[in-house]
Fold:
Amino acid sequence: MIGLALSAFAGRVWALLKGINPLLLVIAALCASTALLWANASAWKGKAQACDAGRRADRAAYVQAQEEATLIATEAKNRIEARDTRIQKEQADVIAKARDDNRALADQWVRDQAARRATSAAYLPLPTDAPGKPDAPATEAVVPVTDIERCADAFTVAEGWQSWWATIAASHVEGRTP
Structure:
C-alpha cells in the first residue's frame, strides 16, 4: 500500500516537473542545497566555537601553570642565591681573618730572619753569600719581603676559594637550601 502511494506521488511530481522550466529546477536545487549547507555550516560553527572555547580554556590553564612554575623557580633561585651570598659573606670574613693571620706570620718570619741575621743564625744564607748583594738589608730574604706578603695573600685567597667551593658544593649535593 505504501509502495502504491509513493509511486502515485512520484508520478504526480514527475508530471509537475515536466511542465516546469529546467532553469527553475536548477535554481530550486541550488536553493535547497544552500539551505542544507547553511544548516550544516551553523552546526559546524557551533562545533568550532566550542573547540575555540576549549582551546582558550586550555591556554588559560597553561598560562596559569607556567606562571606558577615560574614563581616556584624564581623562589628557589632566590633561596639559592641568598644561601650562596650568605656563604660568600661568611667565607669573606674567614678569608680576611686568614689573610691577616698569614700576613702576621709573614711579618713575624721577616722579623725573625732579621734578628737571626744579626746573630748569624738565620735559616737563609747570610747576605754575604747572596751573589751580587754582599750587604743585603734585613728586609730581604731569598725573595723580597713584598713577594712573601703577596704569597701569603695568594695562599689565603686560594684557601678561601677552596673552602667556599667546598661549602657551596656540599650544600648543592645535599640539596640544602635556607
Notes: The longest helix spans residues 22-119. Confidence is low (pLDDT under 50) at residues 126-130.
